[in-house]
Amino acid sequence: MIEFINVTKHYPGRRHVLREINLRLPKGGMALLTGPSGAGKSTLLKLLTRLEDVSHGTLMVGGVDLATLKRRHIPAYRRRVGVVFQDHKLLMDRDVYSNVALTLQVAGVPPRQIESRVRAALEKVGLGDRLRELPATLSGGEQQRVGIARAIVHTPEILLADEPTGNLDPALSDEILDLFRDFHRHGTTVLVATHDARQIARLGLPALHLEQGRLHAPKEFS
């Protein structure tokens, strides 16, 4: 379970980015994090990856207060979380296989396991035949699929996505969001930040709306 308890985030000399956030997302649940640009969506996701620290309040993941994680334990925690970015963040001088394998290599996974897991992840996103191609030869939607494969190759418990369809046309956006819903159906906890009103209506998922740093959520998530 993900649980925010009166979480506030601010930076020195700046306004509060998040104010008294209260949220419970159950294990295996899926929700959309909505709101305009600058509402705090990216910051909320960064708190979940420990790229940023909570200023006040408590953030629990799987019963663990993230503020209590010692620095040496943060890499192990991050291996439980997959992250997909809008701009892919792919290494353009490495082929598709190498981009996806990097996460496992950093974690010290044996080479034989890396190959089987990378191939399986790419099959899941429909790119099993594109292993040796460079990202520059792929379409925007295919590059996003590589980013998703990289995020799921280590079978994370939690999958976070920050505006993953912002640069894609409606048909490709549908395909990408449907992939996230499929991972959710297989037991992964999924939180997707988006301001795409069409996707919000189409998916019919709980919408957690951020506005000026404050969260407006359905009763079951508050």
TrEMBL record:
Q: Name one Pfam family in it.
A: ABC_tran
A biological process term (GO) from this entry: cell division
Q: Which residues form the ABC transporter domain?
A: 2-222
Localization annotation: Cell inner membrane; Cell membrane
The cross-references to InterPro entries, in alphabetical order and at most eight, read:
AAA+_ATPase, ABC_transporter-like_ATP-bd, ABC_transporter-like_CS, ABC_transpr_LolD-like, Cell_div_FtsE, P-loop_NTPase
Q: How does it sit in the membrane?
A: Peripheral membrane protein
Look up the record and report any one GO term of the cellular component aspect.
plasma membrane
What's the protein here called?
Cell division ATP-binding protein FtsE
Organism encoding this protein: Acidithiobacillus caldus (strain SM-1)
Highest classification ranks of the organism: Bacteria, Pseudomonadati, Pseudomonadota, Acidithiobacillia, Acidithiobacillales
Q: Which gene encodes it?
A: ftsE
